[in-house]
Amino acid sequence: MTAQAPTPASRTDRVTCLDGLRGVAACAVVLFHFLYAFKPMVFANSRVGFSLSDTPLAILWNGRFSVAVFFVLSGFVLAASAPRSWREAPLLVGLRYLRLAIPALISSVIAWGWLMGFPDAVREAHALTGSWWFRWTYQPPIPPLSQAMWEGAVGVFLEGTTRFNNPLWTMKTELLGSLMIYIGYAVTPPRWRMLVLTAGAIALIMMDEIGLAAFCAGALIFEGRALLRPHAALGLGLGAVGLILGAPLSGHAAGPGVTDTILASLGTNGLREAGATLVVISILMTPALRSFFERPLLQKLGELSFPLYLVHVPLIVGPACAAYVALAPMGTPGLVLLFAAVAAASLALAVPFLWLVERPTLNGLKALRTRGRARLATL
């Protein structure tokens, strides 16, 4: 029996399979940061030979690839919620900032609390593992709470970095990508959007703004979604190419041989974003993949993805570092148990964050958007 082509979704229909993908990507980021803290040799530059890090299986711990997926998905979602007119653009840009800044502020305050509770844990764990990743976390003396609040709500959007909760570096790119998509949609007629988005992506690549180009790629997928008819073989092929190009860890030594040269190019900046784009297209085109990512467990992970992204690093640099130091030296079984504890604790904290921060923020912004649009309609 031939599968029927789905009816093209409207601008506001939610594509739930992409929520499941977001949840899986968030879990990969958790493992990525855990390994960077306690097993940094996994990410060593100029590695030689061939390992799992040179294969698509690295998608399970390649947080950089997951961030590329987040940026593509953000472009897709922003295109779906883009302004209906130029007059709406300032309203939606302001609401987008609040949507990012409120959870970021709360997570920065939480991170400050964990650092104050375990003030020496990062320094002591750093001495044991030598991981350069710890340089992106404050060590004593810990700055005051006011600094954490400033960096979470404002500073990270200006500087693109914070040492309270280092995953917040993506917030600047998210805000810039939102401005780009919202303003672009406000001033571009619908018939020209795909052309403008393509030109914008090319220009951004040439400017080495690959993260922002991923937003254009996601918006292009949204604009062309009606063309992505179910085709299992083609969809799986595109997904395989995307994983081969983008999922391996970058850092393989180039070497004199052709194989080493190829391996050294995989997973690098640009190929990650291209691979993430192909993976998203693959899921939309492949019925079996859509069904897999629409499973209830993955949908729940998707719902928790942003809270999980925001709360896991404070746990790693606080109690997880303290446990690692107390139990050192820690072998592989101990690290596995420690990761299981971090993952469970991150999920446990993500749930109240979802109920107390994420959902109230989204509901409040939805009400503001409805009121704002109603007021604009009367002007």
Protein model, in words:
The protein has helices at residues 16-38, 63-80, 89-117, 121-129, 145-159, 170-187, 193-206, 210-223, 232-246, 258-265, 271-285, 287-293, 296-327, 332-378. The chain is mainly α. The N and C termini lie far apart (54 Å). This is Acyltransferase. InterPro entries: Acyl_transf_3_dom, Acyltransferase_3. Residues 17-353 form the Acyltransferase domain.
Percent range for helical residues? 55-70%
Number of strands: 0
Query: What's the N-to-C terminus distance?
Result: 54 Å
Largest sheet: none
Count every helix, treating DSSP H or I runs of 4 or more residues as helices. 14
- Total domains, how many? 1
Judging from the principal axes of the Cα atoms, what is the shape? Answer: globular
Tell me, rounded to a whole number, the average pLDDT.
95
Structural class: mainly alpha
**Can you write the helix and strand succession as a string?**
HHHHHHHHHHHHHH
User: Approximately how much beta-strand content do the residues carry?
Assistant: under 5%
Radius of gyration, rounded? 21 Å
Q: Low-confidence runs (pLDDT<50, min 5 residues)?
A: 1-9
